[in-house]
């Protein structure tokens, strides 16, 4: 038994290595999880689920790990219960959590029985029965293989619950009983026999399995005959055979065919009228095509539906005939296989694939809407923009995944008093909601700038707006920096709400500015914000940005910030006279899963000219 189990495990591992492409451990875990979910939800075999996942990836020309992630995202939710009870995979593969969060424990014999159902030979798990002193007094069949038989005529699951001492009354007093007790006590396996019981010779092997006794036995001189082998094969393949002698009219069915049609063998095979009554009307064209092919002398291989006791079964029929010299059939013979589980699994896989396609279309439509909204609300200038006393360059780096349109935004505009209002912000989340929230904050800032130009007061107003939005859409939050630049004094007054600090490049050295106090927008209703002042000099460069530029799950914030500082220093050194374009072309987002907005500011004088405009005027 141990050699057969080892061979089975090695074969399964070889199958896995052949069937799966060379992918990393993380991607393999994602694919395995998706295969398990597919098999569980569609109640198909793992191999079929894995094969279908590969077909989906090939059809969509996508990486299998990406397809698997989409499957997990849609299916990794509790499956609604139905009146059919939990499928077998809930016992063996993925038991669901109970409402209290405690994983239910499946009965150990049920797990063993599910395994033994797939094994040939005669084996059984027996649980010990002990008296109050702990002495072994009996053994009870808890799980058996389909081929297991005993001298009293019982076989397979008919043995479950039977007591060994009842079948073999002299066993408790034999040396074998002492050997069984040693196996249970020490865990050392034993082989007994050949020995004779009631005229039959047996060889038994016993191993301890859990708290029970796992036994395999061979009955010498009583190997299965050809009929037993055929019956075992029929059960294994869930198929039955039938013959129809057209000369004598005699019809013969195998026992498994009666089980497939759930018919009492005492009633004999179904008549033609009874067979037609079970057929599903929608399959009439298939039945007609099969009949025409049979009349042409072809072998028929067709899968049709039948309605048996109110349930639909899918039955595959392969039929041929012995014919006379003129081609007329004399005897029809064939096999019928119940492929209901396979067909239902294929249907459920198709439904899952359709749901995934609809999910992708929905995500794509949302992305398109959010992207158009973002483009309308947040136009990005291709070249640096000149404002009173400063020149501003903007760059927007979208997320790597099309479904992750974010809420990053900026604002740069001259005010009526000759100063300049600058702002940058980041709304939490992605998609249409984030884009619409971004629009509300940006347009609110423009409107509020008519009433006040104080950055701290503006952030206070934006905070109250965000808190109001949070009541409509919970978990709405944002970060922002608002600044006012006065060209005559080259003075920058700024306030921040939980936003990463600006970077100031001066004299070839870049460093973050100390942040004034202020919480995120939408967190504290009556939050107060402080202002800080900075005098900009000609040659300075100020960089405002959102967190996608520095944050990444694989490195710390300090490492991300250091990388940006090095890029700023390199850009200024490469183009000291016009560093803005050089800088925005060099900056790259640190987090491909998040949008990034960059606002680079450089003070100018009245004598500063744009060289490209000057050349065009010539």
From TrEMBL:
PROSITE patterns: ANTAR (PS50921), PAC (PS50113), PPM_2 (PS51746)
Annotated PPM-type phosphatase domain residues: 391-602
Protein name: Serine phosphatase RsbU (Regulator of sigma subunit)
Coiled coil: 342-369
Record keywords: Coiled coil, Hydrolase
Pfam families (alphabetical): ANTAR, SpoIIE
SUPFAM superfamilies: PP2C-like, PYP-like sensor domain (PAS domain)
The organism's taxonomic lineage, starting at the top: Bacteria, Bacillati, Actinomycetota, Actinomycetes, Micromonosporales
Gene Ontology MF annotations: phosphatase activity; RNA binding
The PAC domain, residue ranges: 298-351
Residues in ANTAR domain copies: 11-72
């Amino acid at each position: 038994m141990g050699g057969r189990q080892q061979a089975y495990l090695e074969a399964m591992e070889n199958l896995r290595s052949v069937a799966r492409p060379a992918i990393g451990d993380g991607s393999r875990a994602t694919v395995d999880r998706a295969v398990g979910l597919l098999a569980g939800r569609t109640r198909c075999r793992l191999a079929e689920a894995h094969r279908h996942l590969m077909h989906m990836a090939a059809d969509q020309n996508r990486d299998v790990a990406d397809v698997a992630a989409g499957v997990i995202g849609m299916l990794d939710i509790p499956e609604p219960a139905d009146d059919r009870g939990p499928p077998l995979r809930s016992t063996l593969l993925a038991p669901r959590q109970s409402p209290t969060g405690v994983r239910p424990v499946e009965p150990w014999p049920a797990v063993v029985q599910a395994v033994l159902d797939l094994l040939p030979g005669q084996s059984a798990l027996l649980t010990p029965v002990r008296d109050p002193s702990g002495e072994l007094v009996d053994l009870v069949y808890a799980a058996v293989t389909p081929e297991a038989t005993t001298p009293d005529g019982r076989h397979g699951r008919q043995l479950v619950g039977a007591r060994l001492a009842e079948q073999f009354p002299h066993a408790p007093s034999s040396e074998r009983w002492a050997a069984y007790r040693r196996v249970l006590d020490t865990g050392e396996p034993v082989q007994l026999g050949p020995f004779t019981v009631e005229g039959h010779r047996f060889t038994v092997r016993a191993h301890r399995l859990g708290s029970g006794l796992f036994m395999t036995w061979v009955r010498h001189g009583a190997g299965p005959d050809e009929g037993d082998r055929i019956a075992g094969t029929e059960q294994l393949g869930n198929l039955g055979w039938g013959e129809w002698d057209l000369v004598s009219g005699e019809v013969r069915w195998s026992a498994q065919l009666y089980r497939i049609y759930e018919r009492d063998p005492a009633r004999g095979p179904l008549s033609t009228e009874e067979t037609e009554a079970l057929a599903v009307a929608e399959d009439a064209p298939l039945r007609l095509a099969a009949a025409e092919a049979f009349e042409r002398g072809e072998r028929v291989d067709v899968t049709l539906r039948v309605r048996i006791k109110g349930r639909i079964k899918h039955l595959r029929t392969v039929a041929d005939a012995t014919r006379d010299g003129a081609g007329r059939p004399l005897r029809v013979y064939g096999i019928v296989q119940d492929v209901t589980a396979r067909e239902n699994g294929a249907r459920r896989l198709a439904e899952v694939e359709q749901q995934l396609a609809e999910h992708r279309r929905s995500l794509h439509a949302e992305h398109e809407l959010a992207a158009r909204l973002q483009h309308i609300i947040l136009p990005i200038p291709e070249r640096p923009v000149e404002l009173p006393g400063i020149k501003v360059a903007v760059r927007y780096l979208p997320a790597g995944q099309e479904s992750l349109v974010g809420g990053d935004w900026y604002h740069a505009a001259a005010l009526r008093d000759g100063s300049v209002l600058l702002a940058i912000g980041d709304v939490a989340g992605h998609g249409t909601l984030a884009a619409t929230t971004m629009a509300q904050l940006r347009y609110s800032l423009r409107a509020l700038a008519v009433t006040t130009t104080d950055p701290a007061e503006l952030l206070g107003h934006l905070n109250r707006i965000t808190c109001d939005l949070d009541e409509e859409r919970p978990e709405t939050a944002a970060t922002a920096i608002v600044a006012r630049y006065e060209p005559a004094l080259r003075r920058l007054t700024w306030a921040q709400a939980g936003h990463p600090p600006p970077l100031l490049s001066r004299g070839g050295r870049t460093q973050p500015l100390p942040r004034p106090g202020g919480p995120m927008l939408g967190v504290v209703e009556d939050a107060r914000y402080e202002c800080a002042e900075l005098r900009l000099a000609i040659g300075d460069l100020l960089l405002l940005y959102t967190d996608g530029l520095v944050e990444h799950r694989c490195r710390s914030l300090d490492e991300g910030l250091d990388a940006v500082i090095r890029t700023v220093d390199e850009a200024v050194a490469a183009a000291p006279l016009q560093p803005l374009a050089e800088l925005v072309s060099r900056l790259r987002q640190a987090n491909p899963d998040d949008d990034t907005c960059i606002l680079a500011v450089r003070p100018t004088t009245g004598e500063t000219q744009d060289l490209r405009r000057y050349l065009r005027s010539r």
